[in-house]
Amino acid sequence: MKIIARPPAFTYIKNHLHADRVPLSHLAEKHGTPLYVYSASTIRERFRTFDTAFKRIHHTVCYSVKANSNLSLLKMLAKMGSGFDVVSGGELERVLAVSRQAARKVVFSGVGKTAAEIDLALKADILIFNVESESELDLLANRAAKMKRKARMALRVNPDVFADTHPYISTGMREHKFGVPLHEVGDLYTRAAARKYLDVAGVSCHIGSQITAVDPFAKALGRVADLVRALQANGHNIRYVDAGGGLGIPYKDEEAETADFSAKSGAYAEALRNALGKLSVHLLLEPGRAIVAPAGLLLSRVLVTKQNGKKRFVIVDAAMNDLIRPALYSAYHSIIPEQWNPMQSSAQPVDVVGPICETGDFFARDRELPALKEGDLVAILDVGAYGMSISSNYNSRMKAAEVMIDGSSAKQVRKRETVKDLMRLES
Ligand code: LLP
């Protein structure tokens, strides 16, 4: 069988999996498992590639913090000039903690913002609020008036475009809770323009996540561009168009092996540029997954192997609380052994599962893997996005530690939680 890692960051050197030049077995010894391991070089490279793809348009890449909100990762991106897409006061606080200047490049999205969150963002003088309803428009106008600070704002429109992805993460259709329907935005823009402390500055949209075709993005942005032309003709000073995030990555090995992120970003940029046509606007982009997903793996140790009837189970020490994507979206993640000798060709179908008391606690079902025994290490791939950021303490499990690899250095960027952390806020 063929085992495919994720070069250049994650490769086999002398039959052992490494992150850059660091052996994963050493990291497991030092930091324990389950352990999130990120490659700084991959994150930098992907950010640069994506940003460069848009070099022919005025733009700002606003990395979507929800994908992975680790402070060291945010700091690295801020240093590279990234802006940020946030959806809560907590995410904004994280950005402020790593760089107060970066707050000027923050777009604030989300369907339910509180007055406190809006105040925090007004104080931080963020770039723009993406407003998603009439009520939010009024709330923002009132808070801004109270603070005597002008709020730059865009309305997030719902372009009613179908994107082929998991139904839980498709957001741009009429029946979804997101944005304002296209035919209603005209009135809201008029209403916004009448408010003294609102600066009507943009239009935004986001149609979903893990979308691998570029056509739906082009279709949605084409509708946004028509709207911008109409609004500009009506005297609104629209300078920003926010195309949202959503560009998917290849999770399957064969696709990952031949993937060319530069070509993909290029095609995406080209599609968006064409959709904008001759509009003179500053383009905002909110990628999360495309920047960080392939840059992370989850290292886990086999606790138990067992045979139940015809089924062979490999029970590892990571679980759905650490990585919920397979349980929640039936998502596919490649799993590879830490030790791999290409001369051994035998493989057997196994279910790789966690120790949590739910049948949904699995990482792979009927997956062909080389024989694994108790104590072996495995790596679950492409978990840099929506891995740690959606982890929980379910079953009173402590959250995993996180390590950032940069060349030959391995820095712990989040400690493993302790029992004390687990109970700290309870009486
Ligand atoms: N902008 C907005 C307004 C969003 O709602 C999202 C993601 C993004 C940007 C970033 O999208 P990305 O480029 O990462 O696709 N937990 C799910 C994904 C949820 C995405 C939610 N919104 C998963 O694990 O697949």
Helix and strand topology:
Layout: E1 10-13, E2 16-19, E3 22-23, H1 24-31, E4 35-39, H2 40-53, E5 59-64, H3 71-79, E6 83-86, H4 89-98, E7 106-108, H5 115-123, E8 128-131, H6 134-147, E9 151-158, E10 180-181, H7 185-193, E11 198-204, H8 215-233, E12 240-242, H9 253-258, H10 261-276, E13 282-285, H11 289-292, E14 296-308, E15 311-316, H12 325-329, E16 335-337, E17 348-353, E18 362-369, E19 377-380, E20 401-406, E21 409-414, H13 419-423
Parallel strand pairs: 4-20, 5-6, 5-13, 6-7, 7-8, 8-9, 9-10, 9-11, 11-12, 12-13, 15-17
Antiparallel strand pairs: 1-2, 2-3, 4-14, 14-15, 14-19, 16-19, 17-18, 20-21
Helix pairs in contact: 2-10, 3-4, 5-6, 8-10
The structure holds ligand LLP.
Index terms:
binds ligand LLP, eight-stranded parallel beta barrel, alpha/beta, 427 residues, TIM Barrel, Lyase, Ornithine Decarboxylase, Chain A, domain 1, nine-stranded mixed β-sheet
Q: What does this 3D model show about the protein?
A:
The chain is of the alpha/beta class. It folds into two domains: 10-39 and 294-423, Lyase, Ornithine Decarboxylase, Chain A, domain 1 (Beta Barrel); 109-287, Alanine racemase (TIM Barrel, Alpha-Beta Barrel), CATH 3.20.20. Helix content is 30%, strand content 25%. The protein is built from 13 helices and 21 strands. It has helices spanning 24-31, 40-53, 71-79, 89-98, 115-123, 134-147, 185-193, 215-233, 253-258, 261-276, 289-292, 325-329, 419-423; strands spanning 10-13, 16-19, 22-23, 35-39, 59-64, 83-86, 106-108, 128-131, 151-158, 180-181, 198-204, 240-242, 282-285, 296-308, 311-316, 335-337, 348-353, 362-369, 377-380, 401-406, 409-414. Strands 4, 14, 15, 16, 17, 18, 19, 20 and 21 form a nine-stranded mixed β-sheet that branches. Strands 5-6-7-8-9-11-12-13 form an eight-stranded parallel barrel, surrounded by four helices. Helix 8 (215-233) links the parallel strand 11 and strand 12. It is globular, with a radius of gyration of 23 Å. The mean pLDDT is 95. The structure holds ligand LLP. Ligand LLP binds at residues 64, 66-67, 85, 109, 169, 206, 209-210, 244-247, 286-290, 325, 329, 385-386, 390. Ligand LLP binds next to helix 11 and helix 12.
